[in-house]
Amino acid sequence: MPRMSGLLSHPLAYLWLQRIIGGMRARRMCIEQHVKPRQGDRVLDIGCGPGYLLDYLPEVEYVGFDTEPGYISYANRRYAGRGDFFTEQFAEDKLSAFEPFDFVTMMGILHHLNDEQAADLLRLAGKALRPGGKVISLDGCYRDGQSPIARHMLARDRGEFVRSEDGYLGLTVEVFDQVNVHVREDMFYIPYTIIILECAAADEVDTLRRNNE
């Protein structure tokens, strides 16, 4: 998971920017429309930042990982008692430390990782799921015919690996048996294209299909 640098390494500056451009709104909509968690669910948030996803979740068992110490320090103060936060990468050796999760969320992570790193993280996230669980990711995305402003914003993103829809899909179908793709341009306050991927493994496909009906 990437480390922040400069002003955005400060949680209040990061939160201010996300509020202004609609990043908070996008994550709230993603939770409400795509994750759809229920009270008591177990949620693993990889790249949790300052932990503000908790503002949009019901009472769940929440675990967040991020490599930015300032973010985790803020999250521990702001959301004390509502989740467990760790200043490190979520790695293979962490799987045995937690019960399987209903959801693994990765909000704005894959576009910071090259293909090999992204595939490794997706496989790890899949291993962290319980049967019937889902991995949900949200990232900036190139697409044909998108607004020139949106394309410019994506080109200036700090993430070096913003992909097309096919690029993201190619990563996920190597790991998961079912991937539902949603390309959205209505979630940020600025012209910006994002892709949301809902991923499930073989024994979870029927459950995912029923939940989407």
Folded structure, characterized:
- The chain is α/β, with parallel strands linked by helices.
- The protein has a single domain (6-212), classed as Vaccinia Virus protein VP39 (Rossmann fold, 3-Layer(aba) Sandwich).
- 33% of the residues lie in helices and 25% in strands.
- The chain has helices at residues 11-21, 23-35, 69-78, 115-127, 148-155, 165-172, 205-212, and strands at residues 42-46, 61-66, 83-87, 101-107, 129-142, 163-164, 178-184, 194-200.
- Strands 1, 2, 3, 4, 5, 6, 7 and 8 form an eight-stranded mixed β-sheet that branches.
CATH class categorisation: Alpha Beta
Backbone CA Rg: 16 Å
Molecular shape: globular
Distance N terminus to C terminus? 34 Å
Let me know the CATH homologous superfamily. Vaccinia Virus protein VP39
Could you give the order of the helices and strands?
HHEEHEEHEHEHEEH
Question: Which band does the percent of strand residues land in?
Answer: 15-25%
Brief write-up:
This protein has helices at 11-21, 23-35, 69-78, 115-127, 148-155, 165-172, 205-212, and strands spanning 42-46, 61-66, 83-87, 101-107, 129-142, 163-164, 178-184, 194-200. With 213 residues, it is an alpha/beta fold.
